[in-house]
Amino acid sequence: MNPSHPAAQRLRIVLVGTQHPGNMGSAARAMKTMGLARLVLVAPEKRPNEESYALAAGADDVLGDAVICQTLAEAVADCRMVLGCTARSRRVQLEELMPREAAARAVAQAGAGAEVALVFGRERTGLTNDELQLCHASVHIPANPDYSSLNLAAAVQVLSYELRLALLDAASGEGNADADAAAAQEDPRELPASHAELEGFFAQLADTLDAIDFHKGRAPESAMRKLRRLYLRAGLDVREVRILRGILADAQRMAMLAGSKR
Amino acid sequence: MNPSHPAAQRLRIVLVGTQHPGNMGSAARAMKTMGLARLVLVAPEKRPNEESYALAAGADDVLGDAVICQTLAEAVADCRMVLGCTARSRRVQLEELMPREAAARAVAQAGAGAEVALVFGRERTGLTNDELQLCHASVHIPANPDYSSLNLAAAVQVLSYELRLALLDAASGEGNADADAAAAQEDPRELPASHAELEGFFAQLADTLDAIDFHKGRAPESAMRKLRRLYLRAGLDVREVRILRGILADAQRMAMLAGSKR
């Protein structure tokens, strides 16, 4: 999984008229956790300050590199796709996308070489109608209608998360056989048990149930069928089969000891 | 789109050992924006305070209704699915789910009547190995490997968002409820075992391994850890737990007979 897919370099997060400097820091942090680095601030009420940097935590580089513009038009001048996040845009007739669909389209455009902006409005009042007119579509996070007040950083987090998933999807579609092979080597999972190994285990399980008198006169088929289903569903590996067969062997040994002395 | 799908009532967010009271408020807000209401606090360093309520904003009801427990085991005792959010669990071999897959499974279980917990650890140190042992699977937000420090509320926001999407999906699928009900009647799947039922089984399994002298001087932890992983992965239902405990009881009986006559 490539963390810095080239398309990520063409995605920018634009915050318009941010009122609380802390939110610019939290947004920078949310972006960086998802591998995004390009932040644009349009006419923030205050410039990033100490509080912003405190909340940015390790994402002070993203905040420090933020570009400051006077208008949204300036911030997205070179963009071929501009998506505006809104609580719900009844006022302007824009196509309304869910975050997942928006991220997929944004990454597809960025992957094809286009500059793409995701735009977030003011904490209290969102984007103006004029600002929404600059957007190609709106993005709506499907929040609880009775309480839809995601804070700004939370909204940036959700959209950045969807962008990251879309970027990882795009990267994995690009023939990452090498990465997969490396990952497999890092975590040498035990081999799944073979059919023969599983059947050996099931045969010993059936013998053990007899030996410890589990069925007590009932037909054995029903319990064995349920146990087979359980263990097949679990996808046992060879080590697990070894452990389970060890347990069965010990139970059989106890039954033999008990029986020989009964 | 039904905002209060009944399955949402069976989903709880559990915060373990939270260090900063503000984060409990931000988490409550994140939950409520996504239509979730049940918050459980396990041994928080401080009880929710003024700062918590300030950050909860309009979600003070969620915070005020939060249940406080002393241990994670207590918090999830009645849960049939427990998912632990981790930065990445190299230490404990748990199945690792992406948030989307985790949310789909959680909502499917909750829709079938099971109580489900999503568990978030301490800000700095996450969940302990013992706490992860109580989980059926881990959930990993695929963050930027170079900067994966989502804050607690951001992680709760991402998971709550995925839960909401899954709940909306489930609600929109209920046009086909009749077909589903018919299918369910054909194969009346048993309820998944609860946390307490599973722990009862594991305790008896440990006792049985001792009784049949499975360990033979080796430390018991390693085998038990592997067995826990296997059975948690299998997603045992109540009937399967009953069968397995029956087998253990018979093996214990044999060991007692063998021992009394050794």
UniProtKB/TrEMBL annotation, chains A, B:
UniProt enzyme class: transferase
Catalyzed reaction equations: uridine(32) in tRNA + S-adenosyl-L-methionine = 2'-O-methyluridine(32) in tRNA + S-adenosyl-L-homocysteine + H(+); cytidine(32) in tRNA + S-adenosyl-L-methionine = 2'-O-methylcytidine(32) in tRNA + S-adenosyl-L-homocysteine + H(+)
Subcellular location: Cytoplasm
A matching Pfam family: SpoU_methylase
UniProt GO BP: methylation
Gene Ontology molecular function: methyltransferase activity
SUPFAM superfamilies (UniProt xref): alpha/beta knot (SSF75217)
All residue ranges annotated as the tRNA/rRNA methyltransferase SpoU type domain in the record: 11-161
Alphabetical UniProt keywords: Cytoplasm, Methyltransferase, S-adenosyl-L-methionine, Transferase, tRNA processing
Keyword Metal-binding attached: no
The protein's Enzyme Commission number: 2.1.1.200
CDD domains in UniProt: SpoU-like_TrmJ (cd18093)
Sequence similarity: Belongs to the class IV-like SAM-binding methyltransferase superfamily. RNA methyltransferase TrmH family.
NCBIfam families in the record: rRNA_methyl_1
Subunit structure: Homodimer.
Job description of the protein: Catalyzes the formation of 2'O-methylated cytidine (Cm32) or 2'O-methylated uridine (Um32) at position 32 in tRNA.
Stated name of the protein: tRNA (cytidine/uridine-2'-O-)-methyltransferase TrmJ
